[in-house]
Amino acid sequence: MPQTPKPKLTILVVVLTAFVTTFTGSALNLSIPDLSQEFHAGAGMVGWLVTGYTLAVAACSVPAGRVADITSLKSVLAIGVGLFTICCIAAVFSISIMMLILIRVVQGIGAAMIFSTNTAVLLKAFPAENHGRVIGYSLAATYAGLSSGPVLGGFLNQHFGWKAIFIVTGVITTAACIAVLRLPGDKNVKNLKTDSCGESHHLLTDTDLHGKTLQQLVRRKSNQQQDPEETLTKPHSLDLTGNLLYLISIVLLMYGLSEIGKGWISPVLAGVGLAVGMFFLRHEYRTEEPAVDIRMFRENIGYGFSNLSALLNYGATFAISYLVSIYLQVVQGFSSQATGLIMIAQPAIMAGLSPVAGKLSDRFSPFKLSSIGMGLCALGTCLFVFLNQGTSLWIVITALIITGFGFALFSSPNTNAVMSCVEETNYGVASSILATMRSIGHTISMVIVTIIVTCCMGDASLAEASPGILIRVIRIAFIIFTGICIAGVFISLKRR
């Protein structure tokens, strides 16, 4: 795979887009009360600023990735960044909550284009032996956005208002727009086809024995079996039916899950979404050029279990910040500002260690490293099970650091493992599936919390709960999250 003439510019584009897509959401969360007051909107309506964005990202990631694989990764990335920038500008001039929600939905579509292409563009810019390292840079920027969002977002909202968040975000994405337009166009290059659908799980044994990267072993096997002059060709079919079924399934499933506990219609919608999803899988399995190659999940153990591991990891860890922040404020009595400074420990560790973990995955088995990371996440969530009213703050910080270290060690190597199992022409869809696993995992994590809260507290909010009941909710939630992480460890190891 030849290296692009502008690898540093590619890293800049990916780092900026990875940072801004996470920063915007985490920063805007602190403006919810002000937005509710300014537009005279209820909590449910304002909540759609988050829900609408999340649904758009989840529903459009795979279609955007498919379009990018068929046409041009750079073009889809450029359109996504441009759309995101335009929405930042439009948000500043919003005159109603409905207008702002619509802008956030469109911005979510732009974010889906970014998520489905920025990792793919990054990997095409560097040789396979450096993939883990550069993936680490991207994830470090993602966690930097998550960690700086509450701090910088709170400052901007308090001193300049919520519009300042969109202004700062727009400036960053404008710089990203200029940078992405300077990237070279996609090229159809001569390369060796990888035997990614059926052999990578056998090659992993060689990875463990000889210290080779998965990409190097796939390439070596290809040398033995393929014509060295064979050219990688782009897929030709958009698979409109498959993409439509996917979009309907994800929207109904995620919306139904996110509204669990608010009436009988939510589980019905989730069930319909699941049923449509079954039709989607059946259609994809029978289609010659599917939007998502379902056969890969069955025939390639490394690819299928790596995506499943990602789903479990996000599902077990996303609600940590939500639960711990409420624990620190309600039980321990810290202010929201102090809580934010304490909570920054986890994403800061993620941002600092992700490049290191990614670089290690270029030298050692990414499957082993991500399994160790999942184990550390299990240890961290297990520590949270023992929280009580007298727990030392240092124990909380230690648990946050352990889960941050575990997630950093899991995420970069696991992403490297997933992308190692697909051909270059499928990078877009592979990236978008990972983004979908993240979105679904986040939703499942909060659904688990919602169900526990409903069973223990009824309609009361966590912020209004007594310390004793809150601790009970936290313990039950983290017992479940620890179990999910332990299951994830076994699934990660199963890839061998």
Automatic annotation (TrEMBL):
<feature type="transmembrane region" description="Helical">
    <location>
        <begin position="369"/>
        <end position="387"/>
    </location>
</feature>
<feature type="transmembrane region" description="Helical">
    <location>
        <begin position="302"/>
        <end position="328"/>
    </location>
</feature>
<dbReference type="InterPro" id="IPR011701">
    <property type="entry name" value="MFS"/>
</dbReference>
<feature type="transmembrane region" description="Helical">
    <location>
        <begin position="444"/>
        <end position="463"/>
    </location>
</feature>
<dbReference type="InterPro" id="IPR036259">
    <property type="entry name" value="MFS_trans_sf"/>
</dbReference>
<feature type="transmembrane region" description="Helical">
    <location>
        <begin position="240"/>
        <end position="258"/>
    </location>
</feature>
<dbReference type="GO" id="GO:0005886">
    <property type="term" value="C:plasma membrane"/>
</dbReference>
<feature type="transmembrane region" description="Helical">
    <location>
        <begin position="264"/>
        <end position="281"/>
    </location>
</feature>
<feature type="transmembrane region" description="Helical">
    <location>
        <begin position="469"/>
        <end position="493"/>
    </location>
</feature>
<dbReference type="Pfam" id="PF07690">
    <property type="entry name" value="MFS_1"/>
</dbReference>
<keyword id="KW-1133">Transmembrane helix</keyword>
<feature type="transmembrane region" description="Helical">
    <location>
        <begin position="393"/>
        <end position="410"/>
    </location>
</feature>
<keyword id="KW-0472">Membrane</keyword>
<feature type="domain" description="Major facilitator superfamily (MFS) profile">
    <location>
        <begin position="10"/>
        <end position="496"/>
    </location>
</feature>
<keyword id="KW-0812">Transmembrane</keyword>
<feature type="transmembrane region" description="Helical">
    <location>
        <begin position="334"/>
        <end position="357"/>
    </location>
</feature>
<feature type="transmembrane region" description="Helical">
    <location>
        <begin position="162"/>
        <end position="183"/>
    </location>
</feature>
<feature type="transmembrane region" description="Helical">
    <location>
        <begin position="109"/>
        <end position="127"/>
    </location>
</feature>
<feature type="transmembrane region" description="Helical">
    <location>
        <begin position="134"/>
        <end position="156"/>
    </location>
</feature>
<protein>
    <submittedName>
        <fullName>MFS transporter</fullName>
    </submittedName>
</protein>
<feature type="transmembrane region" description="Helical">
    <location>
        <begin position="45"/>
        <end position="64"/>
    </location>
</feature>
<dbReference type="GO" id="GO:0022857">
    <property type="term" value="F:transmembrane transporter activity"/>
</dbReference>
<dbReference type="InterPro" id="IPR020846">
    <property type="entry name" value="MFS_dom"/>
</dbReference>
<feature type="transmembrane region" description="Helical">
    <location>
        <begin position="76"/>
        <end position="103"/>
    </location>
</feature>
<keyword id="KW-0813">Transport</keyword>
